[in-house]
Amino acid sequence: MYCCWNLAAEIHGGVIVLNPNDNFVDLKTEKERLSFSTREESLTSTQSIPKRGSSSPEEHTSTAMNVAFIAHGYGGLVFVDLLVQRKQEVMNKVYSVAFIDSMHNTQHQTRGDPQIQEWIQKYCREWVSNSKPLDKAVGSLMKVSCPTVSAGTEKYGLAPSCCLHAIFKYLKSMLKAKTTTAFRYSPVATRSSTSKKRGNK
Fold this sequence. Notes:
GO molecular function: siRNA binding
Oligomer: single chain
Protein name: Arb2 domain-containing protein
Domain Arb2: 10-134
Region (Disordered): 36-60
Pfam families: Arb2 (PF22749)
Number of strands: 6
Strand order of the largest sheet: 3-4-5-6
């Protein structure tokens, strides 16, 4: 995880670990954990409180812009579900997705929505466990939803660490392409355009 923060810092980004199933602390369990070293008695009743600094998945990402996802395994399926449920919001905020050995199924999950399928094809890339060298194109008979490349290892458990640098290089290039395009199409105020506005008043 530390490596993720370093790589994100290189592109002036941050890292948010989304784990919506783990927003609460069981007071009894926490007290037992603490009492192991302090020899305090554990609580008898089970109570849960929100973790400090933790909030819902929606609150985590509601104000973020220029968001990229790295989705491993089942996380890919969850991301595509999010894309289907909140299509416009996700398409407006997310500039790229890196799947790693993803379990998503574009055809099935998107129900043939051409706009979503085109977005996935354009803004996503998948790294898969494979014997080919890192970043080499890999054909897939199972699904063709986005460009697929090798993770540089055949071992599923090692795939994320083996391709992490390649993923951040890809995300950096996608962010640069997005910001360059946005800059190209944003209106620029010039002296002549401002003087014309003044003359028209």
